[in-house]
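Lecture 7 notes: from sequence to structure.
We start with the chain below.
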Amino acid sequence: MRWPPSWLNRSVGRHVVRPVQALSESSRRIAENDYSGPPVSTECEDEIADLVRAFCRMKCSTQGYIETLKEKHEVETQLEAVRLQMLKNQINPHFLFNTLNTIAGAAEMEEAETTEKMIQAMSRLFRYNLKSTASVMPFEREKKVVEDYIYLQKMRFGSRIRYTSDCSQDTMEVMIPVFALQPLVENAIVHGLAVKPEGGRLHIRSWIRGKRIFISVSDTGAGIAPERLAEIREELRNGESQKLGIGVSNISRRIKTMYPDGELLIDSREGRGTVVRMAFTVAEM
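Predicted structure tokens for the same chain:
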């Protein structure tokens, strides 16, 4: 049987010429590092079809390999930036810490007791920052570090800041997230006490009720407006940090991660002061 020439031409064009042209165009794109072209297809099951499928597999494999290399390069670039920043963070505090020790020694020789105490407090803060690689610390240690911070702030604001504490001895060994107290104390001073001309009182308290631990930081400062307090409580419930601030949201997230029933509670009255409480249950008590 003889096929009509027109049909034969169409068949050759559809099953041979067009796939080969498509392969040629795709090869040209690949040569220009362009893998965005459409996949080459054919309707037949012959040697041309085998060639097309092999070409498509090669294209996909090459494209995947290139994407992997790009991702690896980006990760390595980011990692190098992180390593550099870590190195900077390591060098700068060490330099400052050593410098503070030198100044403290000079202040001691000159009998400048107040200056010496301030520098020693600052040195302890930096030492704690440098050496605290763990994610949790006993409450007692956190409290001592925060008291160095409070001492420095008292030297700055004078009698405008009055500090007291009432902490149960049974809570001293309870583990809390590292740097959990300092942001709360800083907020109390900066946003509460410092904005009032007469200042006020800062109070740290800890107690046990049943198996539940409570640690609070309270102040008699400016307080929080009701609408703002409602926003803060809503963001604490939702785990958001857009308006809450990195420090408070970070503490809330870590206390909830560390203890299944952990929570951060905030009460405040505008013009009267604010109380922030960490609450959680220690299973082994």
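Points to note: Residues 87 and 108 are 32 Å apart (CA to CA). The first strand starts at residue 136 and ends at 138.
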